[in-house]
Prior knowledge:
Elements: H1 3-14, H2 28-42, E1 44-46, E2 49-51, E3 55-61, H3 62-68, H4 72-90, E4 99-105, E5 113-118, E6 130-132, E7 138-140, E8 146-149, E9 156-157, E10 168-173, E11 176-181, E12 188-190, E13 193-195, E14 197-199, E15 205-208, E16 211-216
Parallel strand pairs: 3-4, 8-9
Antiparallel strand pairs: 1-2, 3-5, 6-7, 6-16, 8-10, 10-11, 11-14, 12-13, 12-15, 15-16
Helix pairs in contact: 1-2, 1-4, 2-4
Amino acid sequence: MGLQQFEQRLERLVEGAFSKANRAGLQPIEIARRLTREMDLRRRVGVHGLIAPNAYMVILSIEDAERFDSFADALARELGDAARDHARTEGYTFLGPVTVTLHSLETLRPGRFNVKAEVQEGPEGVAAGSIVLPDGSRIVLGVEPITIGRLPECTVVVNDQNVSRRHAEIRHSGSDVVVADLRSTNGTKVNGATVTERVLEDGDDITVGTTTLRFETS
């Protein structure tokens, strides 16, 4: 995505909340730059390559926290995406899902902030992975499989008659993540190819009916 695109996406999300008056102070792009710098500084060598921190705490002044309050959730979400994109560009891996939380501290002056970065394993030590839905929201893959289908009890409910009631599932298989078709009527595709079961790679597109989901190793 890149940091410039990060800023453009955030501004579209907040729809003017970050007005000209706000531009005199701390900018979201400054936080993103610091976050990616902390990622680079705190990376470490693992068995299968470079491991990057995945848990970030952004500590703001009271004044800046109030300025960002109306779009704090969007800011945290976009900072998480910036972290994932930077890690993908640099070839880093994560041991758990990427999280970004915003906090405030009375002793900080406006414009000053800190970013704390840590490596945190996922629940029960499972590898990091998530499914990005068409609306941009994200479901983190935990111990239990992610089920896709028309039934209300599915993790991802798809209102599409071309999708079976329990169409497919995404689950851990050892150190891999796989997608498995659940004998659906119209099949499951990965990057356009029909599959019965397949190990997923970062960025793979999973299509059921007319709905496409994206798998990311973060």
